[in-house]
Design a protein that fits this description.
By secondary structure, chain A is of the alpha+beta class. Chain A is built from 12 helices and 22 strands. Chain A has helices at 5-29, 33-36, 60-63, 66-77, 163-171, 176-204, 206-228, 278-293, 328-343, 410-417, 524-532, 538-544, and strands at residues 41-47, 52-58, 86-89, 102-111, 114-124, 153-157, 160-161, 234-241, 247-254, 259-262, 307-310, 361-367, 374-379, 382-383, 397-398, 420-427, 441-447, 453-458, 479-483, 489-492, 494-500, 505-509. In chain B, 29% of the residues lie in helices and 27% in strands. The relative contact order of chain B is 0.09. In chain B, a hairpin with an 8-residue loop joins strand 16 and strand 17 (321-323). At the A-B interface, helix 1, helix 6, helix 7, helix 8 and strand 15 of A face helix 3, helix 6 and helix 11 of B.
């Protein structure tokens, strides 16, 4: 049947509204600050076969995840998918994509007995078992040490909770109350989405509803293809040294129809937890591709159709079971930045200079001195972004991996975690200068107030700094310091389970973004303003700008 | 002759200054409305002009309420003063770091909003409080003089003070403000605790900075207004409309003007709540459609919902700026009568958020506008009368309207009429999604609510929206186009106090909870008493903000009577019920309180409107004509056109119909029943949906 374009658009707008509504519901009900404050979560709607149709706010790195999960569930369960079911998975070899902390929930949507869509979400849960509190450990060598593996199972059958599954999940967590609260938040969220989608399909009819989704994807594909035509054509290559000395290689081929990211020539998978699944690598390529081709409209399956990603099984970007993958995000952000850096010199108008480009995942735990309860901080950090032709970079925003993500206010952190935040300020260390200057990174100091605390952290772009464009300066680098009461200072980029005690200070230091253009060309007025604002010293100005 | 009481409301908008005056006496009520041009920068002149035009003598006025957009305009146009910020050592950059979010997350050229105070004007002082309100490090003011000398050299005109944990203990902030006043008496200074007692240092600091930024501008405005009105004989200073649906004294507003930021929409939604109470409709979905935006809010049990989670300039494209003051809970979208319809590169039709504004305005204004707007679409479809456009004030340029719509149609491959239908449907759908956000999204079933539509465009779209949301009834208030001024007249003197206070709901909690209410109530009573308000005329409403332990976001629960340990379980259960309604599930986890919300109000002689006797049901005396009207999905019908000014209490008729007033057009769909109530409000019953 032919359906008018306006009806299709109304359905598409309503899909977006439903995904947003799912996001809002989850945010307001979650128990863990990593979900409600950091918003380390995503919501999405797929068609019956699991192709992404619409996604809520949240973080870009989660948008390409949910379709892969639903596709796995559809393939695994076939006909055994009923109205009222809710599925759960977290394992990269069973429809999960990222790491075991990220629980994906998916609910099929039926209208007049026909499966028409899925409502799904993903969120980082504080603890899913495993060898270390928070489930993430730099010491892990196989996935079994990183928590309970959920191989895509039914958590709810036709509206009835499978208590056995729920009990297994909560019993395996060090923070069962948090886990239960967060899982229920996720259930409420998919249920709200499913309800809205069903009403929509009832109103317009299943065939019109489905046609609207198909049309939306065709639109996404047409947009992407039109933009590819405007990109420079050819084969672009880059080799980049990493903080740990490994070399990552990439080749990007752009022609009129396709955008091919070749990552086959890369090191074997790691013995530790910094591997990523092939799906995870694809998500990173999708993020850069979307930013390059059409950053302004919501992503759907069609947006990514011209993209091809080549990986080698057994490599760090395509890990084989049972590799550890807990710190997958640091590898993902590296591959994301690798593609960006490979293309930036050729597409400067679409790609700024390098940003601090690390999740800077920081995990601090211990005992709250007032409540006596255990606290766990799990947070990504904010840092400086790179400059581009005509504008200085942004100071202190989240990395390209995160998006609608919020830092934790010092006032809330002090109450919730029972430590002191001694300072939270811009990092004015030299770095990132240029005709246009990179944005400033962060200095954040946590003063520990009880014994038996611990610190785990995983930062990259520590030794190999954010890369500049057109002669600008590199960024200043990410690292973490621990200042002991005797005044000694230890510096780390990767550290696991380091003991902390009363009055130790953990100082998080994130990088400035890189500069763009020759510093000698910087507007003298801008240099004066930087000095007045204390972002630049007279000495450094003489060294760099004059 | 009986005593006459005159109540007057004036509302200064960007383009027009409105007046509504009610004169009540034993002989009945006389209502006067008038409109004149707004007169920047001497806004008080426009107020005097509109009073004169309406024939109102200031000396005869018993009560005057005043609403103004001066604060929001100063913010959006960046026309405030140079502000210096003093904050806690280690936190000068809080204002610039903000929350670090990137809402436009695929856009690598995202531009983070710039702070309102540059780094060199953000100073620090040593001294720390803890989250429990205990002093960790004493405040050291020895560096203050140097800071103030620098501020003077930089021509700072207002100082914002925002210290860590000042919500829990105000003494460092108070001491600092005292020291600044001693040192520099003439500078404008405001501290965060004077505005809010809630945690989150970025939101509180930004709120304080924005208040300081507009304070000298707003105080000058209010002072000029007061002097001008007093010179003309006004006996008592006007009350100033606030964002929390109340009015506040001119003096209090001058000190902390940021509370006015959303006063325009607030007065309309308050009017909706009060009107609902008058006509026995306590559950209302209120919709205000103007030229540029549509705003909606939900009223349950006659109560508006007040929150402190308000942001300006926030969108999918920008993080915006938080303003942590009590603001009526509303959703605003860029869809109004002047919203421009456009087709993107891929043939998709959009409406708004760009607006044609008042100049050039819709194409049909004939003032050079070539973009098709929602208004042009409504004209072409016959929903707006081309021969009575803007109440007959403008000759509709149908040629331009049709040309603009043809251009949209060509891009879509359809006729101008189909383009117009598409525009109306897309605009309606945008509004439906906004209405869902304040209703279904929060666990409210729209079928339990009545849609009350006002503003210039509200009644044009209301019936279509109500049908889609399966609502049974639409109410269009009398004088829908000046409804905000009506709301102002119905307002109480009202202040909302939000205090952060953590408490587990276990034995002993009642003392903590009563303690924080006592602190808030004392503050309220002192403030009112300083303004000469009798303690006996003040009433309080208490809310607690609760959550399951470890959650962050809270749900507000009404607390009735004194809180004792014996009622804590009942309070927890009330929370669980409210929570389940909104989020569909309950947990057995412990419940904790995070803060309180105290509403303090005192009546300031608000308006009481008497119903008129109902007359004949026959509405034919109000019939103007019939004409062909395109109802989009419901087809084209010959509709009866009524003159809204001739509709009298008791009249009844059935759609398809159009009701034309000077400021608005009401579209009545086929088979809708309309009746005019004793206050001349229109009640439209949707039979099709029941």
């Amino acid at each position: 049947m032919s359906t008018d374009q306006i009806t299709l658009e109304i359905i598409q707008n309503s899909l977006q509204a439903a995904a947003d509504e799912m996001f809002a519901a989850m945010r307001k009900t979650a128990m863990s600050s990593i979900i409600y404050e950091v918003l380390d979560m995503g919501t999405g709607i797929t068609d019956a076969t699991g192709r992404i149709a619409s996604s809520g706010a949240g973080i870009p790195a989660f948008i390409g995840v949910l379709d892969k999960s639903v596709q796995y569930i559809v393939q695994k369960f076939g006909d055994d998918i009923q109205a009222g079911d809710v599925f759960i998975t977290n394992d990269p070899w069973h429809g999960g994509v990222t790491h075991l902390n990220d629980l994906v929930l998916a609910m099929p949507v039926f209208s007049n007995g026909q499966l028409i869509a899925w409502a799904a979400n993903i969120a980082h849960n504080s603890d899913v078992g495993g060898m270390a509190p928070g489930s993430l450990s730099g010491e892990a060598t196989e996935i079994f040490q990183e928590g309970l593996r959920l191989p895509a199972v039914k958590l709810i059958r036709e509206g009835v909770t499978d208590q056995a599954v729920m009990d297994i999940i909560t019993t395996n967590s060090r923070m069962p109350d948090f886990l239960k609260g967060d899982v229920w938040a996720a259930i409420a969220s998919v249920r709200i989405g499913a309800k809205r989608l069903e009403a929509l399909s009832q109103k317009y009819g299943n065939s019109v509803f489905t046609a609207a989704i198909d049309n939306f994807m065709e639109f996404g594909e047409a947009t992407a293809k039109a933009e590819i035509k405007k990109l420079p054509k050819g084969c672009f290559e880059l080799s980049e040294e990493q903080d740990d000395g490994r070399i990552f290689n990439i080749k990007v081929t752009i022609n009129d129809e396709e955008f091919i990211v070749d990552l086959r020539d890369n090191p074997d998978q790691d013995a530790g937890p910094t591997n990523t699944s092939r799906d995870g690598t694809i998500v990173c390529a999708q993020m850069v591709f979307k930013s390059l081709t059409d950053p302004n409209t919501p992503a759907n399956d069609g947006s990514f159709r011209p993209l091809k990603v080549l990986t080698r099984e057994g490599s760090v970007f395509h890990a084989q079971e049972p590799a550890a993958i807990g710190f997958y995000f640091e590898t993902e952000v590296r591959v994301y930045d690798l593609i960006w850096r490979c293309l930036a010199p050729h597409i400067k108008e679409r790609l700024p200079a390098g940003h601090f480009s690390s999740i800077c995942g920081t995990f601090i735990g211990g005992t709250h001195p007032e409540t006596g309860r255990q606290y766990t901080i799990i947070e990504p950090q904010i840092g400086g972004w790179g400059a581009w032709d005509g504008r200085d970079g942004n100071p202190c925003i989240f990395s390209g991996f995160h998006g609608e993500t919020y830092n934790t206010p010092a006032e809330i952190s002090e109450a919730r975690n029972g430590l002191f935040v001694d300072r939270m300020e811009l990092n004015t260390a030299p770095g990132g200068e240029g005709e246009y200057m990179g944005g400033r990174g962060l200095i954040l100091e946590y003063r520990i107030r009880t014994k038996n605390g611990f610190l785990t952290a995983g930062y990259t772009r520590s030794k190999i700094k954010p890369w500049s464009l057109e002669g600008g300066e590199e960024g200043s680098g990410n690292f973490v310091e621990v200042i002991k009461t005797d005044g000694t200072t230890e510096t780390y980029s990767f550290v696991s389970g380091l003991s902390l005690t009363t009055d130790d200070v953990v100082r998080v230091i994130t990088s400035s973004g890189a500069g763009y253009g020759d510093p000698k060309k910087r507007d003298p007025e801008a240099i004066k303003t930087d000095i007045q604002n204390g972002l630049l010293t007279e000495e450094r100005a003489k060294e760099i700008y004059y | 002759m009986s005593k006459v009481t005159r109540r007057v409301a004036t509302d200064v908008g960007g383009t027009f200054t409105d007046l509504v005056s009610f004169e009540s006496s034993d002989e009945g009520m006389k209502i006067i409305t008038a409109k004149t041009d707004t007169t920047p920068p001497n806004f008080e002149q426009g107020v005097l002009n509109v009073l004169e035009k309406g024939g109102v003598q200031p000396e005869d006025v018993d009560f005057m309420a005043h609403g103004t957009t001066v604060v929001i305009n100063a913010l959006t146009e960046r026309k405030g003063v140079t502000v210096g910020l003093i904050t806690t050592e280690g936190f000068r950059d809080t204002l610039e770091i903000a929350r670090g979010n990137r809402p436009d997350f695929f856009n690598l050229h995202y531009e983070k909003p710039l702070p309102f105070v540059p780094r060199h004007l953000r100073a620090e002082l040593p001294g720390r409080m803890t989250y429990l309100g205990q002093e960790r490090t004493p405040q050291d003011l020895s560096g203050l003089k140097e800071i103030l000398d620098y501020f003077r050299s930089q021509h700072v005109q207002a100082i914002a003070v925002s210290l860590l944990h000042a919500y829990a203990n105000t003494s460092h902030e108070s001491d600092l403000v005292g020291a600044i006043r001693d040192e520099w008496p003439e500078v404008s200074v405001v501290a965060s605790h004077q505005i809010t007692r809630e945690w989150r240092e970025y939101e509180r600091s930004n709120t304080t900075v924005l208040s300081a930024y507009v304070q000298p501008v707003a105080a000058k405005y209010l002072n000029n207004l007061d002097e001008a009105l007093r010179e003309q004989g006004l006996k008592q200073s006007p009350y100033i409309m606030q964002s929390n649906c109340g009015v506040d004294s001119l003096q209090a507003t001058s000190a902390v003007p940021i509370t006015m930021v959303e006063s325009g929409p607030a007065s309309g939604f308050w009017g909706a709540a009060e009107l609902g109470k008058m006509i026995g409709e306590p559950n209302i979905l209120a919709l205000d459609i103007g030229g540029t935006t549509a705003k909606c809010s939900l009223i349950e049990g006659g109560e508006v919902r007040i929150m402190t989670d308000y942001w300006i300039e926030r969108s999918r494209k920008s993080a915006g700026y938080p303003i942590m003051v009590p603001v009526v809970d509303l959703v605003e979208i860029g869809n109004g009568g002047g919203s421009i319809a456009w087709v993107d590169d891929f043939g998709k039709l959009h409406v708004g958020p760009q607006s044609a504004g008042a100049l050039p305005g819709p194409a049909a204004y004939g003032k050079g506008g070539t973009d098709a707007t929602t208004t042009d679409a409504n004209l072409l479809l016959g929903r707006i009368n081309k021969d009575f456009f803007c109440g007959g004030a403008i000759d509709a340029d149908m040629q331009s309207a049709e040309t603009s719509l043809t251009q949209v149609g060509e891009k879509l491959g359809v006729s101008a009429v189909d383009a117009a239908r598409g525009i109306v449907r897309i605009a309606n759908n945008n509004m439906i999604n906004a209405l869902k956000l304040v209703s279904l999204n929060r666990g409210h079933d729209t079928r339990d609510f009545t849609l009350l539509a006002f503003g210039g465009g509200g009644s044009m779209h209301a019936v279509a929206l109500a049908e889609e949301l399966q609502m049974k009834k639409v109410i269009v208030p009398a004088a829908a186009s000046v409804f905000s001024a009506f709301g102002m007249m119905m307002s109480d003197l009202r202040r909302d106090y939000f205090f952060t206070q953590l408490a587990d709901l276990t034995e002993g909690a009642a003392t903590v909870i009563e303690g924080v209410f006592a602190e808030a109530e004392t503050q309220a009573l002192e403030t009112f008493s300083a303004e000469g308000v009798q303690a006996s005329s003040i009433s309080f409403i208490r809310y607690g903000k609760f959550r399951y332990q470890n959650q962050e976001h809270t749900t507000e629960v009404l607390l009735e009577g004194t809180v004792t340990d014996a009622v804590l379980d009942g309070i927890a259960e009330d929370f669980r019920v409210t929570y389940e309604k909104e989020y569909t599930y309950r947990l057995d986890a412990p419940v904790e309180m995070v803060g309180i919300h105290l509403v303090a109000r005192a009546e300031v002689g608000k308006l009481v409107i008497e119903p008129a006797p109902l007359g004949s049901e026959d509405a034919t005396p109000a019939v103007k004509a019939t004409r062909s009207v395109d109802y989009a999905l419901q087809g084209i019908h010959e509709a009866v056109i009524y003159n809204g000014e001739l509709l009298t209490p008791g009249m009844r008729f059935t759609g398809p119909a159009i009701i034309e007033d000077t400021g608005s057009t009401t579209v009545v769909h086929p088979e809708n029943h309309v009746h005019v109530d004793a206050y001349r409000n229109l009640h439209i019953t949707l039979e099709a949906s029941s």
